[in-house]
Records
---
Amino acid sequence: MIQLTIDGRAIQVQDGATVMEAARANGIDIPHLCYHPDLSVSGGCRLCLVEIEGRPFPVPGCGLACADDMVIRTQSEQLSAMRREIIDLFISDHPLDCVTCDKAGACLLQKYAYEYGISETSHDFEVSRTLYQDDNPFFLRDHQYCILCGRCVRVCSEIVGANAIEIVGRGFESHVATPFDGPMIDSSCVFCGSCVQVCPTAALMPVSRRGQGREWDLDRVKTICGYCGVGCEIEYARRNGKIVYAQARPDAPVNGEFLCSKGRYGWDFATSPQRLTRPMIRRDVAYDLGLTDDPWTLPDSSPLADEKPRIEDSFVPVDWDTALNLIGERLADTVKEYGPDSVMGLSSARCTNEENYLFQKFMRAGIGTNNVDHCARL
Amino acid sequence: MTNSIREIRDADCLFITGSNTAVSHPVISYEVIRAVKRGANLIIVDPRRIPLVDHATLFLQIKPGTDIYVFLAIMHTIIREGWVNDTFIAERTEGFDKFKAVVEEYPPERAALISGVPVEQIEAAARIYALGERASGTSIYDDKRGHSAILYAMGITQRSNGTDLVMTLANLAMLGGHVGKPSTGVNPLRGQSNVQGACDLGCLVNVFPGYQAVTDEAKRTTLAQAWNVPSLPGEVGLTIVEAMHAASEGKVRAVYVMGENPMMSDPNTSHVEHALRSLDLLVVQDIFPSETAFLAHIILPAAASLEKDGSFTNTERRVQLLKPVIAAPGEARPDWQITGEIAARFDHYLGIAREPGYWVFPSAEAIFKEIAAVTPIYGGMSYQRLAGAGISWPCPTPDHAGTQYLHVGKFSRGLGKFNPVQAHDPAEQPDDEYPLILSTGRVLYHYHTGTMTRRSEPLAWREPGGFVEINPADADGLQGSGGVVIESRRGSVRAEVRISDRVPPGTIFLAFHWRESPANMLTQDFALDPVAKIPEYKVCAVRLKQA
């Protein structure tokens, strides 16, 4: 263990911890843009400069290893002046479009500009990167807002392992790019959106987010992803009861801030016009019950043979009571005539614990059979 | 999983087999990438050149179905070279001598001939795994031996000898003593959001909630009392594939399907369709008109998981709470409400009277209270406790913190048993008539039978249609042909061709998401694993014809 002092507080940390980590673990927030707790240290933005007693110049806290008896200051007149100058430089080529920007309220650059009182740049303003890339339906790349912090590049390499992007060019020409600046789909990108998640500005934004409201217009609900068995926690940002975008939070127990393409972007199925919205009875059954006047027979051809089959061609909508009573009656008839083992229940690995429990209870305690299985094997 | 997902990043060696992790469990692959970046060795045993191979130290590219020889040869080498964890074997296991005698028959030279994996690779994998060697950096663990974890998925289990293969991986873990410690274990990566929970809560033919055997009379009596019924059935029921055969024979007359699509997911689709058509009653409760729904007599609209309360149990046994994010469309209802109503009406027609609230619950939470009361591994859980990070089972009592990793100090059965497993070949081998092997699985942007993902705009944009992956060596004359017909002894399927060296020569890969190219028209349902009754989706014999 190492003993040091940060902002007058005595702090104890594990060997190998950085000043940034020690400060964060003790609730001391050092300003930062390129630092991210899950990524390697870059040290590029210089916003996390701290003063070390006995050393003449400030040092970035993200890459500074804690040492015994170190005395650190994270706030001072000198540091504030330096940070103001850094932010001033950042906004000399970052448009202050905050009044129309979808990221407003969640942008780190905006947060620090506010905290350090910088409303405009003192340098000549010139946007050095003007590329706007909307080459996929997952996320937009609007390079004028990019501050080259490199978080996206690091997350793609260090967490996702896709290595789809890199910083290319020099000076004002430098920007984040796929190989040869080709379309995203031709790169090794897996469209997981982890880059979007860690981007501190509006350079990377979900397409679904565009023009859908400001951060403070949205409310948020966390639930568990419905796709694979990893159990990622996803936070959905909503407006008027509709999902605007999905992201993950650092405190998600399994996945932290990271999701895959299906989890982050594959939620729009829920509002598909093809959703089933009413109970339905097949036309031949409905005809036998006198619910429709038109006789009908189930075609011999497979449902798979039809390219776009329409469910309403084969079924008539009914109310819940009609459907539920019919099922209850027919199941009871089957059990009476052929015994409980003539009934099979297929439950679902996509349904909840409560639903699966009740389902098998119905099969066992109601119907009286152990013929209950689900898609665990498939 | 015996261990938790977060432990993967701290492993010294990861051994992945039969899992295309970056595609089927992307977020777990992120943990693997973190481990590799920290200096862990990554060993992959797979027929296909999966994306994680780019990050691997060793890639043992096997011919499909020959992995068992490689595993046996790895264990042969570990024993021969004295890399076994003697203390662990002496203190924690039984049956080692008998097992050792079997493994002696499988030297790496034999495995190399059959699998195509060089002897040196097998021996290197044996050393790295057994000793938990790192590629670089220092372990966070102080032990003499590094920590090695095995990750596997359906490439191991969807096989006619799947149970043997799982026992083999368990044997391998015990040889190195890589069980009961963090960042070790035998870790099946489970494929669906709540497949773990559906199993835990008894939607299996042989067990009640909490894996209590239906054949155990004492368990049956206790549960019958809790459920207030005179008795419960004591005979093991029919699995899905068995039920389809029984339906064809007229023994099963009615099927109630909640959120499944056997027309796409079950092997030998033509037979499944015949079986479903021969039913007196087919009820399908789903969120979309699935391929199966078109054969139903009655369809019920269900709410999606985004639209309801409840809980899911993930692959590391963590039970987590769901919250409704959006409203269900139209008259769609949560499945628990529908099932409760059906059960109540079934009782009514049979003239059975039960106490009010027996089937129809006021909330998902009320059902969970009953779950905790009759399911010992969930016994200490409540919605209140699950809020936040959830709890991993076993959690038997309200003051139990849950279990991050299993088998600490001793196995559930006491001593870990070495099962002397022999090698078996897949049930259907390629021959002159059907010279290629078909393997099925998933692609990154789609999920299972595609009912959800294929209706998602961005996902469907990225991967709009079905395709079969064919190695350049098998694709002579197919390129630019605009499609190919794949034939097996069960049926034929047309698919677009993607020439790819992800598959080895002699093997083709077709995902089962595509209704226009339904892979399960081809797969076989005659040779199931004798214990788990899982179909052999990963190996069947096919041939290609110009479309």
Note: Chain B has three domains: 5-189, 195-392, 436-546.
---
Amino acid sequence: MRISVQDGAFDFAAQARAFAADAAGMGAIVTFTGVVRDLDGGGLEAMEIEHYPGMTEKAISAIAQEARTRWALGDVLVIHRHGRLVPGEQIMMVATAAPHRGDAFAAAEFLMDYLKSRAPFWKREITAAGAHWVDATDADEAALKRW
Amino acid sequence: MDILYFAWVRERIGVPSERIETDAATVAGLVEELRAREDRYAAAFADLGALRVALDQELGDFDAPLAGVREVAFFPPMTGG
């Protein structure tokens, strides 16, 4: 299991390749990458991501451990960036390895749902009009209830 | 005790962290003390439903006891992913 909270960019292909190489004997590898998306109608200059150093790593580790207790997983990778990102940049990735794809897919979705509202990150959108903190949505919270 | 603020809570209060002495028994008691200090605290803590709290880097509740806690953080609901 590897957790990385970092300000620099990551190489998705290299990370996926290394993760797969280490996942000997696993029948399924699922990867997900989140990308900074422009606002509907455009105008997003940057996304700034603040986090809580120390707690962030602990919270993500706890979420990943919880995934490992729920599904038969061989390995888990979570990379999440903070700092200033522009549209098109990759914010984060998760990868899961499991003997069977059902577990790998479910665990990846679980990780994503929990990273969204239980890992201490806060996004701020920067436009020509100014800066705006992104609000958490009821849908984000509701997504946790299915687990 | 170290108090940390993140995102718009940090902006409203104007500092990212501060060290305070408190006799408050619970998080809610600490919030009452902070609110009484200055308007900027009252503004930041106006709606507790819009806030989350972590005690020693674990998510907690506003009625949680503060005994033995070294670090309390206040922030809005998280928006990772």
Note: Chain A touches chain B at residues 34, 49-50, 52, 54-55, 58-59, 80, 91-92, 112, 115-124, 133-136, 140-141 (CB under 8 Å).
